[in-house]
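call fold(seq) -> tokens
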Amino acid sequence: MSDASSFPPVKKREIVSWAMFDFANSSYTTIIVSVAYSIYFTKLVAPGRHADFLWGVGIFLSNLLVMFTAPIIGAMADDMGRKKLFLLCTSALCVAGTLALATVAPGWVVWGLTLFVISNLGFSYGENLVAAFLPEISTPQNVGRISGFGWGLGYFGGLVCLMAVRPLLNAGFTTENLSNLRLIWIVTGLFFLVSAIPTFLILRERAPRGPRRKFGEYFKVTFGRLRATAGALRHFSELARFLTVFFIFSCGLMQIIAFAGIYAERTIGYTPDQLIGLFISLQLSSAGGAFLFGFVQDRLGARRTIQMALVVWILVCVGAYAAQTKGFFFVVALAAGLGIGSLQSASRGLVGLFSPVEKAASFLPSGASPARAPTCSGR
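ret:
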């Protein structure tokens, strides 16, 4: 992380505007990936014994593409010094894909998967790009708190969007409720769009603007930066070791996120209304974990914080395997929220701490790409 004194001072409202992107895009992960569209797809769009497999294919394809293309986009954003422009474009891709989900009818499997892949690509690129601003707006002394603030506010964003669409889910995932279910995707896309406006109005681009190049030169320079980033990782041994460990523990984490709603609804027997209540509680515990462990990270260090969060997750996995009742599963879910909030916040903060600001968008996809690989191979 570069010395903060080399950049214009960061005001609190700019940090809040940066965190508002987490508030905005958490609507996508909460509604589309975890709570509603995953169940909508497996129950109505692609019903039958292959439904879960097809949903896994969608997760596989989108994350495989992200794993190979996010570093390219990050390197190009670094070279141009236009992370904010790239963030705007990728956010528009996610919003457009989410809004278009309203056109997905029962039986339209290929169309439903295509739009999900497109929207998830936009979401994932945005995750990497907004995280690349972290080295610019934080210092080694407060990176944990700022990262935790973003994650915590993000969980509240998912909660607000969840409450907004709750009335549309009252009739369940049935063909009779199809019009309301389609409206959910529109509400989610608009929520993302409106909530992200403060980010694009207030957040500043501090990295130096790159030279103008011919279109073909951008690709040549981009791949050169990728080679340089791969070589630079050898000089950031702590970051390289962390990315290896990050790859391992992300295997379980990404699978749980992608199939949490389906498992709760099908295996544990949660009704749509109970499922909403479960995820409301999960969002609150996740927000608490992100906020709390942000302070813990700044006091004890990211390494110890991540170790503590991983212990929580080990206990969660054991508990989820043993869960037979809704009550016990609810307790396990609260612990999972605490663990995921702290783990994601601390991981982003640690990568941001180690990343040089001039290569932030190139380095941070290196941390995201391993996290995508598990969902490419886990199902």
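Residues 237-268 form the longest helix (32 residues).
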